[in-house]
Amino acid sequence: MPISKKILEDMKRGSWIRKMFENGIRLKKQFGTENVFDLSLGNPEIEPPQKFQEALKSLVNNPAKGMHRYMQNSGYSETRAAVAKKINKESSIKLTESDIVMTCGAAGGLNVVLKSMFDAGDEVLILAPYFVEYGYYIANHGLRCRIVETDKNFMPDLAELDKNIGPATKALLINSPNNPTGAVYDDATIKGIARLVSEKEKRFSTKIVLIMDDAYGKITYDDAKTACIFDHHPNSIIVASFSKILSIPGERIGYIACNPKCTDHDEIMVALAFCNRTLGFINAPALMQHAINNVACEAVDVSIYRQKRDYLYNALVSAGYEITKPKGAFYMFPKTPIADDVEFTKKLLVHRVLAVPGVGFGRSGYMRLSYCVEDKVLEGAIEGLKKAIIN
């Protein structure tokens, strides 16, 4: 049977995360799971909050009639209202259920947005380092991806953005708290981006949509605060997920929120619901929508991640690694001791430590380490990381 030439090409390039996953399987078979220290995946080991567990148990024990049937493609009204209420706590712009579409995670939501709002050939800007799948999502819909570098601390560089936003630019996709760096864009940063985007809209007589990938929600540290883009740019979309903040990534439940002030808002909402269906998602999982109705504002204990971050950060700095201390998410993005990050991550495999080379995220000379793992995995990984930098 034939395979799409494009997909075959993409598969050959592959995902670095997937490659590390496969290396992990091989090493675990060879040395035993307890002797392999996998920091390659953002798969949180913290269990969901008790309130979520209780909500799920209540649904199973007391199922409502029709609980598992189809609903509007945009999701249950009460679930969308709960999400709107959550966002209203973070923004001066007030949303209602009419501004929300429930999705199959943030990944599904991003694909729905890109399909709904842009035409083939339109340009979408992303900031490097970036989540590895962005390029694939953008290409899925015939769009062009333009990569813009961030500064040495992985924060948006307005001068670089200024040079890269042109007449073909239709969207800027940003991610804060950031995967893979842990950078958090504060209010001043978002305000500066929004001001520049507005200036470009006027200059080119276009509309540029500011899309916030908010997959890591409020997982922030050291009093770092994320900013809501709705407060700064009318043509804005938030795509988010409960995967990380409730520690339920396998349940695939997220949402799209559209700024009520967005141009053509009502048409956009219809298009989002339509593409939710035609892309094959149909609707977000019914059980999960019911489950989060009363826990949309809940979160895991972020202090646990902060402790893990501090432990890993202090150990790596002591070992001689150069790192920008992350302020959010649960990833660290240290420089590799040698310029060839792929070669260094191969070196780590000798010590049974799995890390993802930075080249997969658009920034060579670095590597991503995930610290949302058990403490014993971090402890074992640190030993390997220390040996690798010395030898």
Structure explained in plain terms:
With 391 residues, the protein is α/β, with parallel strands linked by helices. It has 2 domains: 5-48 and 301-390, Aspartate Aminotransferase, domain 1 (Alpha-Beta Complex), CATH 3.90.1150; 51-292, Type I PLP-dependent aspartate aminotransferase-like (Major domain) (Aspartate Aminotransferase, domain 2, 3-Layer(aba) Sandwich). It is 41% helix and 13% strand. The chain is built from 13 helices and 12 strands. The strands form 3 sheets. A 7-stranded mixed sheet has the order 2-8-7-6-5-3-4, sandwiched between helices. The longest helix is centred in the middle third of the chain and has 18 residues, at 187-204. The termini are far apart. The mean pLDDT is 94.
Topology:
Layout: H1 5-13, H2 16-31, E1 37-38, H3 50-61, H4 77-88, E2 100-103, H5 105-117, E3 123-128, H6 134-140, E4 144-149, H7 158-164, E5 169-175, H8 187-204, E6 209-214, E7 236-241, E8 254-258, H9 265-278, H10 286-292, H11 302-319, E9 331-332, H12 341-350, E10 353-354, E11 356-357, E12 367-370, H13 375-390
- How far do the termini sit from each other? 47 Å
Q: Count the domains.
A: 2
CATH topology call of the largest domain: Aspartate Aminotransferase, domain 2
CATH architecture of the largest domain: 3-Layer(aba) Sandwich
Low-pLDDT segments, ≥5 res: none
Shape: globular
Total number of helical segments? Answer: 13
- CATH C-level class of the largest domain is Alpha Beta
Series of H and E elements = HHEHHEHEHEHEHEEEHHHEHEEEH
With strands numbered from the N-terminus, the spatial order across the biggest sheet is: 2-8-7-6-5-3-4
Q: Can you count the beta strands?
A: 12
Assembly classification: single chain
Please tell me how large the radius of gyration is: 21 Å
Q: Approximately what portion of the residues adopt beta-strand conformation? A: 5-15%
The biggest sheet amounts to: 7 strands, mixed
Question: CATH superfamily of the largest domain, called what?
Answer: Type I PLP-dependent aspartate aminotransferase-like (Major domain)
**Helical fraction:** 40-55%
Mean of the pLDDT scores?
A: 94
**Helix/strand/pairing category:** alpha/beta
